[in-house]
Amino acid sequence: xxxxxxxxxxxxxxxxxxxxTTAHADSAINVYIxxxxxxxxxxxxxxxxxxxxPLRAIFEALNATVKWDQKAQMVTAxxxxxxxxxxIKSKVATINNQAVTLDVPAQSIKGRTMVPxxxxxxxxxxxxxxxxxxxxxxxxSSDNSGGNGNVGNPSAxxxxxxxxxxxxxxxxxxxxxxxxxxxxxxxxxHYRVYIVKAGNASWFNLSATGKVSxxxxxxxxxxxxxxxxxxxxxxxDVDGAVIKAxxxxxxxxxxxxKGNATNALSAASGTVTLDSGASVAAATNxxxxxxxxxxxGRDISVSFTRPQNDSNINNYRVLIVKTKDVSGxxxxxxxxxxxxxxxxxxxxxxxxxxxxxxxxxxxxxxGEIIKNGVAYTAYVLSVSNxxxxxxxxxxxxxxxxxxxxxxxxPTITQVRDQSDxxxxxxxxxxxxxxSDESKISGYRVFVVKASDYANFNLSKANSVSSSNxxxxxxxxxxxxxxxxxxxxDVDGAxxxxxxxxxxxxxAVGSGSYTGNNTLSSPSSAVTLxxxxxxxxxxxxxxxxxxxxxxxxxxxxxxxxxxxESNISSYRILVVKTSNAGxFNLSKAxxxxxxxxxxxxxxxxxFNQALAxxxxxxxxxxxxxxxSYNVFVLSVGKGSYNGTYTLSAKxxxxxxxxxxxxxxxxxxxxxxISDHxxxxxxxxxxxxxxxESNISNYRIMVVKSSNAGxFDLAKANLVNSYNYTEVxxxxxxxxxxxxxxxDVDGxxxxxxxxxxVFVLSVGxxSYAGNNALSLGSSSTITLSYNYNVLPVPNxxxxxxxxxxxxxxxxxxxxxxxxxxxxxxYRILVVKSANAGxFNLTKANAVNNSSNxxxxxxxxxNIKTALSSGxxDVDGAxxxNDxxxxVFVLSVGSGNNNALSQGxxxxxxxxxxxxxxxxxxxxxLEGNTGSFSDIKVSFxxxxxxxxxxxxxxxxxxxxxxGNFKVQDANxxxxxxxxTRVAPRGSNVSQSLQNSRxxxxxAINTDTTYQVxxxxxxxxxxxxxxxxxxxxxxVRVNPNPDTVSIPAVSDVKVTSDASGITVSFTEPAAKQNxxxxxxxxxxxxxxxxxxxxxSAYSDGKALKVKDGAAQIVTQDVYGAPIxxxxxxxxxxxxxxxxxxxxxxxxxxxxxxxxLYVPPVQPEVTPPASSPxxxxxxEQPSVPVTTQ
Length: 1184
Fold this sequence. Notes:
By secondary structure, this protein is mainly beta. The chain has 14 helices and 76 strands. Strand 8 and strand 9 form a beta hairpin.
């Protein structure tokens, strides 16, 4: 009893020590007792840097008796043999008559007695947690009598991840990460991390954990957050074996319960196989891009960063893996991938980044041709060039899917808050139009809450309702647009101030590209605010906190604007939901002063129930049974007097007598069968502690997509066909019926994400006053996990001469339904024992060394076993022993299935030579002869059967018809290059000048290389021809290669000087640059002089034929085109790599420039005085 009190006092004392004194009251503080939220009529607040909590609510939650002395202003709380006395405004309290000094006195705030959390400074030792991000206080009482009175058993950790993060070949390479148990604070004592050989994972269960010695697992204490553990070199697996290289492992995490609680074991992590201690470095920064529109491998370009030191790397292999298969893809599967399932990228030059583009025949690692519409992930395998260091696999690229669309992606350049309308008009978006808009009909702008933007993608954008995005028609210029006042975010909420958003832009395909839309990257975050006038309240929350049937039941909280400098007060307006849709700023300012609640203070957030006489905006008293929404009006002051801003509305609330109907808790769900209906769904929950006012419970199954908005009002409306009714009395655990339905009326089935709620149904005077459970279950998706099928068509082949498992190739068809299969095990059985080998014996083969584990791939499987492979008796696989092979389908649950046995096989030696791999041809040197070709290939694994290798050069035009018989017929020594086995890989230049047909190797023909492995047996039938290398063509000797001259030289002589332009040659790949040379008319220019002018800087050097002004002549004198005429030449300058002979154009004349003559202008004389001429005598006019 006393421990309960100390747990309460712990929060009073410790929380202010955990909180920084600079904390603000605008982030709500939540208190949880033993995992259950403590609801109070007044939220915790800060006073003088100390958190104040409502005393009565906490004491009553801990079943204490509280007495109030109005006259003495004193509260007395009694629990068992503990008595606490506090006096309002006094800094001295007593615990069992022992005085304790408080930092801040108890005080009455808004009608509630509040106490400082730093209370009885030295009296505590209970567990109190504080999460600074969520502002959450967690109290764990020692006897678990706080909160809901039942801590329960710990839940399993939410995930377990095992990674190989090193190359030591021991436990130091392994890192285990896991998510904390959901009820860690109240139920978990500690965690245990188990490392299990992957072959034993199927039998490792909760019972098995109790048999593991203490030295064979790692222990971690709870921290309140997810954890990671890097193991040690001495770490052992559950069998007691030190962790080592070349062994596959999985990890489990056990949540160990407190007291007598049962433990909870996680699911297994993915499988990890440690590399040997020595390995080459991995490629990094692997990126895959959709670069074309062929619908095959040519669309994929993969780039990556090569290791800083790759001298020990022969080349790189790019592998494309279906994203759905990446969980089973590792170094082992990469090493065993068929050569058709990767491309080779050779090291080249000093570039830190390399790139490879696939071809039309490229396949993914399952052997399927790469195609559109499939999600892939790219990996890069660093291939070691030595036998002492192993290969290394990169991390995967981001998942990508090839699309038929060639529509480019819009680019957002800016989003900003431009005004104070409190809606979409405030949000202005700028984005760049597509350079080619012929494939699209227009654009869509999506506004996404910043809290959700990481989950927003093209698929979700395509499914957004047209009312929840803004469309723009395409136009000939970039966009800079504001949204409309009615614009909504993708969730259907109107855009408003105080919410952080990110914006996406979609280009909408049209015509043959209809449906092939593209989505931009997200914009930067933007939060609209009233920075231009009166700020708006945000985060309005409402709750039903009492059963008074008036305003005291309605608890309202909100977050004030960050800038209150223009605000005098706030008005809380309660509006009937039926009128809330049309309630606007005009109506809000017209509400009578009797019909709203005024909060005069600014500077803090509001957290309070309304008064008993509170009314809605229509003047009606607030009461039960009426659906309301709450708005808050910000009232301006000063120069903004008469200016108002209306908030968005709260969620709807209907008050009811719901505090006397208990709620179900601890809802858990499990998938327990394979009926594909409600019988697969097992539901358990803890009933209400007081069931006196409850008639029964209703189990309601809700699609996860709708669970966030599922509340009491919706639960009360669910049709009786769409829930399962359960009688009260005792806790509940059972599966639903075969015809159980979700709340939408759909039959419960596989493949749908569900969450489960429980409704407590009131009875008697509380009939109709139901209560919805405290939260829901976790999400569950039913699936086929019990029906495990065997594989058909197990066949075997002898493919080598190693006298071990590598000679044994096993093929089998995948099971017709792999849904419930975790992996396959290949079991090799001596034929003498095969007749009695059955499922029971197969399940008993627990030593992972005695079978070969194969990950399911979604396709048929062909694989050769390893050199160390053993049969089920533990004997190494070898020649001359008859075997039959079985395949065990290992279920995700506890069920397995065994295939029929293969036909009998007895391995034996063969004289056939092996085919070389890793064949490539490169050019090294520029002599223009056969010796420039360098050939590299990997030696065969077993050279004991090889007498020699023959390197054959074949024109690419003939490569398709060149077979092993043709190679055997090349007997003239000058027509191939002989290489003797040397025990190492081969890399050398050609020794002979002729191709396989006896023709001289030349610079005009494209060739490919083949290697014939010649068997020691001397029998041509035992020879093996390799696959063709890449294409290669000898470059001519650059000393003999000339480059072309320019053409169409245009010369203009004018006031600005001499301007020259020209047309570059079509074949300009070997041209480094050009030089324009001006020569005074009458002076000859030859190629040697042109070269000298270029070298001496007396020519104008240019990169292309664009118009340029020549400023000096060949002698370095300035151009003077008013006195001299010039001849203009253009010199083509070779790059000196592939060509060394320059080319000079013909001369082109630049004539004299004669400036135009300006006419002389006589300045006007000053105006002479006006002179009146003398009057002339009249002359008579004679008419003839």
